[in-house]
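Regression test case RT-17, inverse folding.

Input:
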């Protein structure tokens, strides 16, 4: 319970990796604000389970990550209810698969807004409170696509490279305030985001579902296994520890060897 007395925000935490981050933080005693879209009953159930995991508090805020005003209001909500936000994990993300010349402009705008710009707006809102307290942990969720490209994922690759650069920049700006800023770059994790891209990948590359699973997704990772949300969350927990105070501006790969290969 090394996070007792601390409070966290995790954007995009109604499913997948974000929900695993929230569970890991709550298990260590942190108050957690979860965010994202989905079935209202399922979200309330997840929120209630986070509270029973630790006895700490869990809140839900439906802020839309395309809306800077709602991101600022979400941070104000957590600060008012918890008394502060010591940990912020930017995680909300969407994906679209299509060649550049056919890529819908509105999809480009949404991917940049939800993956990249929301990370910037979250940082802007949480840094002043962290500076006042002299302690903070900011984590961003990039991807192996922050380091390497794949065809037909222009907006996602651009957003994830942008997140890696933004993370390094803020790390330098707040290094003397007890705040660390690090990026986590998972390989393929079996979540709705990956499952939903299969039909578009089949169409863009003329492949069957089985070929996408084996020759595109699992083939990228020398382990030939998906990364799990719990593995990603375990790395996040380490980065929240006092012992990780010297780790800042880093981009941690957790990708089954993908980017090494
Ligand atoms: P997911 O689809 O399970 O989760 C995405 C979350 O973002 C959901 O909670 C969803 O409601 C939320 N979200 C989407 N649009 C939003 C908006 N406008 N406002 C607020 N919330 C919004 O997917 P995931 O795989 O768990 O993805 C989480 C993060 O991990 C993303 O940033 C993704 O790019 C990154 N990532 C995923 C993988 C993977 O293989 N699954 C790999 C590398 C990085």
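Golden output:
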């Amino acid at each position: 319970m090394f996070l007792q007395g601390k409070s966290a925000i995790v954007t995009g935490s109604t499913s997948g990796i974000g929900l695993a981050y929230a569970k890991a933080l709550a298990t260590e005693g942190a108050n957690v604000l979860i965010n994202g879209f989905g079935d209202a009953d399922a979200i309330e159930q997840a929120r209630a389970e986070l509270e029973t995991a630790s006895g700490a508090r869990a809140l839900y805020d439906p802020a839309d990550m395309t809306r800077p005003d709602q991101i600022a209001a979400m941070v104000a909500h957590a600060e008012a209810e918890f008394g502060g936000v010591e940990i912020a994990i930017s995680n909300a993300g969407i994906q679209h698969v299509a060649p550049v010349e056919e890529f819908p402009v509105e999809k480009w705008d949404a991917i940049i807004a939800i993956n990249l710009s929301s990370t910037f707006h979250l940082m802007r809102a949480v840094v002043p409170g962290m500076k006042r307290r002299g302690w903070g942990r900011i984590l961003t969720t990039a991807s192996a696509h922050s380091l390497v490209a794949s065809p037909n994922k222009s907006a996602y690759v651009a957003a994830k490279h942008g997140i890696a650069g933004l993370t390094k920049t803020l790390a330098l700006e707040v290094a003397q305030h007890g705040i660390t800023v690090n990026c986590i770059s998972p390989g393929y994790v079996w979540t709705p985001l990956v499952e939903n891209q299969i039909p578009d990948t089949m169409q863009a590359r003329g492949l069957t579902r089985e070929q996408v699973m084996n020759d595109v997704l699992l083939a990228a990772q020398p382990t030939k296994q998906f990364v799990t949300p719990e593995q990603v969350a375990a790395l996040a927990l380490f980065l929240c520890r006092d012992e990780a105070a010297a780790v800042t501006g880093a981009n941690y790969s957790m990708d089954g060897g993908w980017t090494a290969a």
